[in-house]
Amino acid sequence: MRFIWLLMVVGLVNSQAVGAAYQSGVIAAFRGEVSVERGSEIIPVKAAGPIFLNDTVVTGAGARLQILLRDQSTFSVGGGARITIDEFVYQPKEKTGRLAASVSRGAFRFVSGKIAKTRPDNMKVKVGDVVVAVRGTEVIGSVQPDQSSIILLSGAIDVMSLSPECVSNSGGSSVFEIGPDGDLVMSAPPLADAPIFCSQSVNSSGFGVSVSSAGEVSQPLRIDFDEIDVVLDQLALE
Amino acid sequence: MPEPTVLKYCVAIKTLCVALGLNGLLSAQSWADYRPANHGDIVDAILANDGSTGIERPNSDPALIERVMALNEGRNAFEANIQSYRELSTIDLGYTDKAIVQRLFQTPRRTDRLLKPDQGRQVVLVEQILANLANRQLVDEILASNHGSLGPALRGLKELEARYQINLYGYLKFSQRVTKTLSHDVLRQKYMAHQNIADFDTSIQLAKKILNLEPSDTQIRKDLISLLDKSEASTLANNHRMTLALLEPVKDSDQAEFRVVQPELQRKIVDETNLLAIADDKNQLQTAEISVGDFETRLDYLAERIFQDPANLNLNLEYFQQQISEGELEGAEITLERILLIDPESKFAKILMAETQIKLGKLSEARNILNRLLASDDLVPDMRQQALNYVAQIEEIVSPITWRSSVGLTAGISHNALGRSDSGLVLFQDLTLDSGQADVDVAFNELNFDSSMAYRLPYEIPTTLTMRAFGQGRENDHEDLSRTSTIGGSISLREANNNRTLESSLTLAQTRVSSQPYANVASLAASLMTGLTESLVVGGSLAYTESWYQDFENVIANKENSGETLTAGLSLMGQIKQVGWSVTGKWSDSNAENHAASNDLAALAMALNYSFDNCRNTLSADRTWTRAKAANVFVSANPKKTTQTNWSYGGACTLEDFWTGVSVEPSFRFVWRDAASNILNYSKESSEYSLGVKLRFQ
User: Fold this and answer.
1) Which of residues 290-309 of B touch A (CB under 8 A)?
2) Handedness of CA B237, B239, B244, B245 (dihedral sign)
3) Predicted local confidence at residue B21, as pLDDT
4) Which of A5, B315, B362, B685 is 20 to 30 A (C-alpha) from B97?
5) Do the Cβ atoms of B299 and B318 come closer than 8 Å?
């Protein structure tokens, strides 16, 4: 039992000074040039090296990286990617917690773990200018300056734009916050009369959305194999 | 084979040289005379395979195998061979592949998994095992005979390799017996020389050799870490950092790179090839001894161990197997991704990845991996075959079009084939007459075909358009019974989403009697099925059918039977273990030009279906109540009412791929029918039994 308590990892949104003291994940494996931006420091990563809250992991061209979180969520990114674990709280005994991450550049794949299984609302990933609420379990995509893509491989996702036309600006600079009941919520709530491009649900594998530079989310479309291959090639191990 | 006189000469030279202490002067050409008497059998066995005989694979020589088998006498030969294979596989396979092979050999495996060599492959494997074992023996014995003087023995071995196409020096290199002869000082000198000229690659190799001889040389280890960092071999560098940390415990804990090293990890670092790595961040979480009991499931326990030690290959493999056994395919794929990041060269891991991705439906990804694997020249034959099988499997799944065809032939006996009534009488204008029909058994045969093409439409909800052609003909061995046939086609659209299936179809068919058109039918139908629970499905259907009867010889006013029928059905289906069951209710309202041919119908059908392996048995019963809307005045003053009961029991087994792409399905069927009617002529009982065979083409 002592171990169970040791496993509890606690993080707080926007409290870097506190958050940085706690490990949220681990560099499970990597190839190529990968570094961690921790505050003003840039640290080359090592296998099994820890990832702390608000660490931004940056991969060089051609690099590959897999990050493992304690709830068994996994993030894989290709070369030229930036990923940050913004929020991670996990209680192994109850298998509950909160997970928020941001992919601001590059190709990515994430597979949700225990948190999304127990409380799907409590796993959210900011991908470029949209937030992906994960209802399990596997999503790939690519964040580029002109257009991003988000493709569902299994489970279901909701994609919400953070464009000013879609959300109120009351959230300030942070994207996520903790709601009164301890759940992970968006700091900037969606506008009631938001246009249709602000939010889409993708419920079928092989379907996805594209996000324009203005933050407009397309309707879910079947993504053909070639397009999926483009993303997968950026994550492929060869 | 060298001439005996040459051998004698060689032995004489060796004896002379040994006597003079000039072993090193012996020529490689006379390698055979290094052979002491006590290991002659093995050497003779190899010599028996003279290169001039053109034997392509001398290692499979029966005499050689026999010798090695003799060496294994007293041990469990099979176990010894497998053990040898495990050990020897490291010569040709990378570290990861070796670990996978070992794990797969150790673990009971499902029969449909890969790496199940066929009998021919097993024979080759055993031959390789034996031959490799023989080679090792040979090397060991030749080395032993030279009392550690490696030079001349090596020259002899090289010649032997060239002559008999066998790998001896590889084993020597693998077992590092070549490098051990160089002293620590010599290696250091060479190392320093290469360091001075910034030859990093050679420096790394030499540093590793020095550390093999002298693991406690911390200065060389520090240099090696620096060199490995420069060459971006960070995992290996971390291994050495960890070893260094163990060799030089840092007294000041704040500066310690490795605060926590579990005893298990300490053991692992002894192996240079172990790809273990450990975090070195000073803020690393404290770890504690953990046991399975601390976790709800073994999977959770392994996940936590992986979190602490993500680069531990064996742990990852164990985790992978646990994930597969628990159906956690997505997690298994991630674990394989991790393994391949650690060791990108592992072909076994790639095959396992493709297999996992096919199960996940990630066909494009699986195909990419397989294509890259197949492009490599050094893929072993059974792995190549496995990859090709998977590619074929993917091609079949990926294609949006599926063709299916079948041809069936049934032969049987029909009892009361002429439909004699139970009373043997006919009611005609209030008179009862003898029907004149005998209660006869008639042999019959049926031929049927069914061919369909299903096209998967590119919609979010899985939708299939199916076009089908079908036909059935029946011939009876009795002059009073006509030959009947039905030929038709249909087009249907099926939409299946989660637990709901919606299907609509249009069917056109023509029935012919004795090769003449008898009736044409067009039917438009729609059905909806939805799951109430995981094992209970409810379905409803609605069909509109238009019939056009044709003028037909000997049938008065056949055309007046034409009309329309509206049918509604409701069914409940379920599954209890291997037994499926269904209950179906059906109602129809039929209106023909001839009112006596119009009727109302109600039917209740029940069926039980039991499946095992590739066989299924079906027992069904149905009861139909039919009431004509008007009387046929030529038969009776009252409208006909009939209650018909059918019992049917049948079974079929499918022999998959009996021929390439063709499955064979033998079957049997027994049907009993009983009709009761208010008109005597329609109360009758009949039955038939038959045997059939169907060929399915895919």
Assistant:
1) 290, 294, 300, 303-304, 306-309
2) positive
3) 35
4) B362
5) no
Mean pLDDT of all residues belonging to chain B:
72
Note the pLDDT of residue B217: 78
Strand positions, DSSP E, A39-172 = 41-44, 50-52, 56-59, 64-69, 74-77, 82-91, 96-111, 123-127, 130-143, 147-161
Rounded-to-integer distance, Cα B275 and Cα B286, Å: 22
Partners of B239 in the β-ladder: none
d(CA B598, CA B551): 18
Per-residue model confidence as pLDDT tens digits over B230-259:
776 766 776 666 566 555 543 333 332 322
Which pLDDT belongs to residue B247?
A: 57
Q: Tell me which of B476 and B176 has the higher pLDDT.
A: B476
Q: Give the three-class secondary structure for A19.
A: helix
Of B489, B474, B472, the closest CA to residue B523 belongs to: B489
In B507-576, alpha helices (H): none
Contact call for residues B141 and B40 (beta carbons, < 8 A): no
SS3 B24: helix
Q: Say if B246 is an interface residue toward chain A (CB within 8 Å).
A: no
Hey, what are B245's tokens? 């940390």
Buried b (16+ CB within 10 A) or exposed e, B261-276: eeeebeebbeeeebbb
* B317 and A CB contact within 8 Å: no
Residue B484, CA atoms < 13 Å, CB-side half-sphere = 11
Who wins on pLDDT, B33 or B624? Answer: B624
The pLDDT, as a whole number, for residue B400 is 79
Q: Beta-carbon neighbour count of residue A88 at 10 Å?
A: 26
Residue the block writes with tokens 């194999």:
A225
For residue B646, what pLDDT is reported? 96
- The two tokens of residue B405 are 């065809």
CB B339 within 8 A of CB B350: no
Interchain proximity A29–B281, CB inside 8 Å: no
ipTM above 0.90, yes or no: no
Q: With bands split at pLDDT 50, 70 and 90, how would you rate the model's confidence at B467? A: very high
- Greatest Cα pair distance in chain B: 133
Distance CA B188, CA B193 (A): 9
Most confident of A189-198, B219-228, B660-669: B660-669
pLDDT number for residue B91: 45
Q: Strand A64-69 vs strand B662-677: parallel, antiparallel, or unpaired?
A: unpaired
Q: Which of B284, B294, B337 sits opposite A237 (nearest CB)?
A: B337
pLDDT at A90: 87
**Partner residue opposite B330 with nearest CB, options A1, A3, A137:** A137
Angle between helix axes B62-71 and B40-47 (nearest 10 degrees) is 160
- Amino acid letter for position B696: R
Report CB contact under 8 Å: B306, A28.
Answer: yes
Contact B467, B489 (CB under 8 A): yes
Other CB atoms within 10 A of residue B477 CB: 13
Q: Give residue-wise pLDDT tens across range B645-654.
A: 999 999 999 8
